[in-house]
Amino acid sequence: MVGIKINKTLRNVLIALVVIILIFAIPSFFPDKDYHAKYDNYDLSTNVGAVSSTRTYSEYLKEHSSAKNPKNEVSVDVLNFVEEKSTGTRVEKNYKGKDVVITDEESSVTWIVDVPEAGFYNISMEYVAVPSRNVNMERILYVNGEMPFTGADTLAFYRLWKDGGPVKYDNRGNSIRPTQVEVFDYQSVYFKSDLGYEVDPYKVFFNKGENEITLEATSEPMAISGIKLCPVVVYKTYEQYLAKQKSNPDSYTGKDITVKIQGEDSVVRSDPSLFARYDRSSAITEPYSTKQTILNYTGGDSWKIPGQWIEWELEVPEDGWYTISLKARQFFQRGYVACRSVYIDDEIPFDALKSVGFKYDSDWQYATLSDAEKKPYKFYLSKGKHSIKLEATLGEIGQVIQQVQDSVYRLNLIYRTILVLTGEHPDLNRDYEIQKVYPDEVAAMMLESRRLYKLIDDFVAITGEKSNQISPAEVLAVQLEQFYKHPDRITKGFASFKDNTTTLASSMLSMTETKLDIDYIQLQSINDKIKVDRSNFFKNVGHEITSFVNSYFYDSSSLGSVYKEGSDHLIEVWIVTGRDQSQVLKNMIDDSFTPISGINVNVKLIKVESLLNAVVAGNGPDVVISTYQSHPVDYALRNANVNLRRFKDCDEVLSWFMPSAYKPYEYNGGIYALPEQQTFNLMFYRKDILEQLNLKVPETWEELIEILPTLQGNNITIGVPYPNIITPDMTTFYSMVYQAGGQIYNKEGNKSVIDSEPGVAAFKTYTGLYNSYGIPTVYDFMSRFRTGDMAIGIANYTTYNTIVVGAPEIRGLWDFTYLPGTKDEKGNIDRSNISGGVCTMMIKKGIDLDDLDLSNLPELAYSDNNGKTFEEGVIPGIDEKTWNEVMRNETRMADSWEFMRWWVSADTQVRFGREMEALLGASARYATANREALRQLSWNSRQIKVLEDSMQETVGVPEVPGSYYTPRHIVNGTRRVINEKDDARETLIDYTRKINEELTRKRQEFNLPVAED
Fold this sequence. Notes:
The chain is of the alpha+beta class and 1013 residues long. Helix 8 (471-485) runs antiparallel to helix 9, helix 11 packs antiparallel against helix 24 (906-920) and helix 18 crosses helix 19 (757-771).
């Protein structure tokens, strides 16, 4: 019986194994079908229904399809610009060795160029960056007074960056990444797509004779030393490259020559984010460590934007023929190919290197530059220094992404057109006869379906597989085909149609991220055998065991150098954000703060929930960074943090911020934290929709309400933050209160006065937006803004980061401006804007001078503790041990203040903001509270003006004992008025009374004076 039971178990196991094998094996016998039958013999270049008012690059090329490609170069005399058509422009002689025209940040410069032969030209420009805010320069190109195509309005020109010094090490052997510094050298570049959809430079058509070229600055000044109209770039073939060299590779006899350049040793790059990084996840990363943080590769998440490049230098020992291999890793996206253009000595040697692809692999891959048959390319290099540059590019997939973007835009036009008839939620029992009302839009659905089917086939042809990136296109293509065949299904699937379009747009975003890591680049003589550097089972097992063992002996919560307790001038800083932020902070401390100040800093990354427990237990930090806005006053009530006004230069530091930024941290005449970040609301709007409906951008709430009927008549709405219980956002309502002349609390902070007449008026306006005009209370602003059924939205200004990164398909179609204001009797607009933020505060530890009774002592005896010694009986009741503790605590607080002052200073905030954006991209743009630092972050001049003006209008709501009750009951009151239609005035008065009851109770708890009835 036991034998039978074992046999049955073995049989079941074998059956299960066979089933699993079949599940994975069967698909390989039935490859993904293609969709040629869906679109072959159809003209996909036509447009049906609503079309874009702008001209795409492909449409531009089609318009000039008969144009020639002249062979002669035409130079532009850049110093001889048209003065009457140019602004913010001047000539400067011998600027860094060349005569240049300097164009300021808000400039426009026009040249006249005589073109001997009409046709397409590439435009090349030589320039050097001018010291400014260290962000990329951006220009708009106009030819003969008009922008030739979309894309010409966002020409990006990179700065040059390098390490500011050698790699240093902390006291645990971890690498300290050098600061990135800018290099002001001339560089020559072609005008290209900043999105990388086109690998080749833009082709621009010029007429024969005189033509105007205008460059309008949208960001950053630059110095231009030369512009040329060049023949359209045609790359040599590999055979032509070989024929042009001095010798024949077949006759080369060199051997045993290997030159290796580590990825982290690049000499110059286009972006400060392309610095050296560390990796402990692989067994074969070189150099290798599972314990220390060793800089051992470059690239990563930051090297994803087309046009970004990294350059290395190498010394070739002798003339000869070499192979080039890259130890690279693309483990970011399965079913995707990351591409790089390969430059040797600043030029692409032959056409095959214009786009070299790296497919997905979970570990490092050793890729030798080779042809389609895996035969390595041979490169002739002379003895001496050479450069190798890798530039991120989208390769062939760029055209696919461009077409996806165009498709998403057209689908959103179709959606908004039908939306006018059906609304966002169509009546499923009604026949809208969409095929009769909008026959062109229904036909356009079928055309778009065919286009999407073709895009799927093109994508698979490039990547070799149908991945999850292109699957949304397949879902949408099927849906659109069904809509065309059965128009009555459009209303039933209208919501999913919008969702599918949004999903396709999101997948397009992931396709534009061409991430790649580089461990090292290796040159070998063509006569040497190429040794592939790959991992194996035994290396991986050894790596995992070593990593596991080291995890028990290495404190991962502490960052960088760690100093022992008892050291002189040592403080502990806790940060409550993320590991990326904490690592950047620690690097900055170790390379900037500690060497200058002599104060050692231990940094720990913790969860914010752990802070209170640690402080209560007496194990808290000296300084906590990025904590909640409500914490300083809460801790001050319990004598748990330090009043910063004890420091003489406190007012000087506070002058770096708007008073609104630190208003929530004031209590009883003291200030208990310094602002780090300050955020506030702005109004985001779709320029294309407002222009289409002939609507002006509203400046006041009254104007916003006036345009609502027109928007809603087209089934388009607006978004105003609605308060919820979990994360009550009361900023919009509070802003209305202050704009009307009201306040949240009285001057003493012991009573809420939100039920005053200004408060009641604001409450009626706010709740009326939902009750009288039916704007949505629950919505996904990002999703609805990108599709266009929400044309205006009030949101925190950091929402800009989300939209600019997450919705590239509406680039140029939206903008942000000031929060709507309220007009007073004189016609002035009050734009009071409630701000929020995070802060840094100093935790109180033990006894300090403020705790001692020094009232009967001379001021000199306690105003300055530097060098002070203990004197028996000078301070009654204080022995020498206690006095020494006081002095140690005073030193600790002085060191902590020095750190806090450094942390919130403009230079530190600018560097931190830039490094975070470099590390995590534009979505991590830093919302600094420092006014000077804000001006130096990566905003263009128009955006900075809006932000600075709005910051001037910000209002800080004070934190008072029991203030947590205020948003809670305002939320209750708002929901009651909207859901139950209660009277706004009575409701606000009722809940204000409840708020005041809690404020009184809390003040009594802490023995504070209460408000008189």
